[in-house]
Specification:
This protein is of the alpha+beta class. Helix content is 14%, strand content 32%.
């Protein structure tokens, strides 16, 4: 009997990616697992959305104190830097599995010219950093009234061949 199996061309890549991730997560050298967790960098997920008044970024940074988050704008670039520190309360032998990422992160975003760099607001609540970038007044959409029909009076024009008396 012949079986039909669905072929997934990306299955091999997913398996390879999992193996590479495990390879780089394994502790190397005498510093042990604790040290390797505190020195790795990670990139927290970010949602970016835009409406007619602002551009908003929502960055997931749970477990990070607000004092460990730095938000800056320089040369039309928004930079968010922070650090999640490894809790040293438990001995490393007690951990069976560590999946959360620790260490420092830096995310940079090139801002559109429509953003007013003087009107930036950053709020941190329930592990989400929300950065709201207001748009410049001239960048906001304006509604233009459309006139219907001919509402202008046409002025009479002289014919092209008319002579002008001096």
């Amino acid at each position: 009997m012949t079986m039909i199996t669905r072929w997934d061309p990306f299955r091999e890549f997913v398996t390879l990616q999992d193996r590479m991730n495990r390879l780089f997560r394994d502790p190397r050298g005498p510093e042990g697992q604790d040290e390797s967790l505190t020195t790795t960098a990670f990139a927290p997920p970010v949602d970016v959305y835009e409406d007619e008044h602002s551009v908003t970024l929502k960055i997931e940074v749970p477990g990070i104190d607000e004092k460990d988050i730095d938000v800056r704008i320089e040369n039309n670039t928004l930079t968010v830097h922070g650090e999640r520190k490894f809790e040293k309360e438990e001995k490393e032998e007690n951990y069976r599995r560590v999946e959360r990422q620790y260490g420092s992160f830096t995310r940079t975003f090139t801002l559109p010219n429509t953003v007013d760099q003087e009107s930036v607001q950053a709020d941190y609540d329930k592990g989400v950093l929300k950065v709201k970038l207001a748009k410049k007044a001239e960048a906001k959409p304006k509604q233009i009234r459309v006139n219907v029909g001919s509402q202008k009076t046409l002025e009479s024009k002289e014919p092209k061949n008319a002579k002008v008396a001096a």
